Fold this protein.
Amino acid sequence: MVELILKKRKGFELSKDEYTSIIEGFISGDIPDYQVSSFLMAVYFNGMSSEETANLTDIMMHSGEVIDLSAIEGIKVDKHSTGGVGDKTTLILAPLVAAAGVPVAKMSGRGLGHTGGTIDKMESIKGLSVELSRTDFIAHIKKHNIALCGQNANLVPADKKLYALRDVTGTVDNISLISSSIMSKKLACGADAIVIDIKVGHGAFMKTVKDAEALAEMMISIGSRMNKSVTAVITSMNEPLGLTIGNALEVKEAIDTLKGNGPDDLTDLCLELGSRMLVLAEVAKTHDEGVEILKKLIASGAAFAKFKELVAAQGGDLSVIEEPDLLPRSQFSYEYKSNSEGYISELNALDIGIASVKLGAGRETKASHIDHGAGIILKKKIGDAIKKNEVLAMLYSNSESNFEKAQALMDAAYTVSKEKPAYKPLILKTIQ
Ligand code: URA
């Protein structure tokens, strides 16, 4: 291992066999964490070629179960978001795209830190089970064209262990390491093609469009080396997506969007990503055709009907879907008001994400309990005019003392200017 650390430290490429020995030794415990940490830091500074990155992806992907979806007909297209605040697109896209005839085999994660996770959101629906056996997962997709479940411990265990080490050694934000981590999980889930939503901005890993482009190119290159089509959409995460942050609040907003009554930014992003999925699945010939198909499925009620079918199939209580006001809502509410007037020119997604965690909507540690009814409803977003004392957001929590903890973050999140800020687009670039 010392030789391999030195080789990477000097900037040389490592062979696939050398990566295999590192990953195998790391998982078995033969190579100690301190040597893998040192190797990761050498990778952080010297990078990895696209061949090295594809090799590492392949080795990690095969470190655990690789799901075989070949029993399901059609091109299986997965979607991934690099993580954001208020990002409930999977809840909308999965049924929307399934309603268009694309089989959706979705495995999702839980939230950690300031970004939420689809599985936590789904669990705010009473009775809904996100634990499906492999046989049931495939049977549900065959019957309903859709299933959504959590990732089990046997899916890419190498990434679990490596990510935990990266997290505490300052080596998370490296493009090769992020790409191999994400792609190994998507490929292990059996995807034939993948749409990746790469977030850029305050609330995201990638802080500049240039870095997001480099990440996109790397993931596309891994995909093409493994014969999988990848489309990357680079989108802004400077302000939260939609108007809600918090599990049950986001489910309600997803339902509104599936019925055609969602906020514009969320709806536009779902149409963009969904249409890219339809093109990869060969259900639409062009992006514009895909958008038209999806709009019709929303207008006809077919997309919402597919969401209800998903919830019912997984044991969820349909009455809360028909009447979303019955979804969990925390006991206490607080009106967060403006102390100045003008236009909102910034609404920092990171601060808002952390504020929602303080209210109980997310986990501060892996073991923290989630309050499904906690969170934030934004009443105003970037570009909106505001008056002094106007309510900017509603906060929800089961403990009134949490409002104090969230207050400073809310104060920091807003920047108010005299002039209306220039419009900044949400969808920045698509690369395929
Ligand atoms: N998400 C992942 O799954 N892996 C990373 O390395 C970063 C974000």
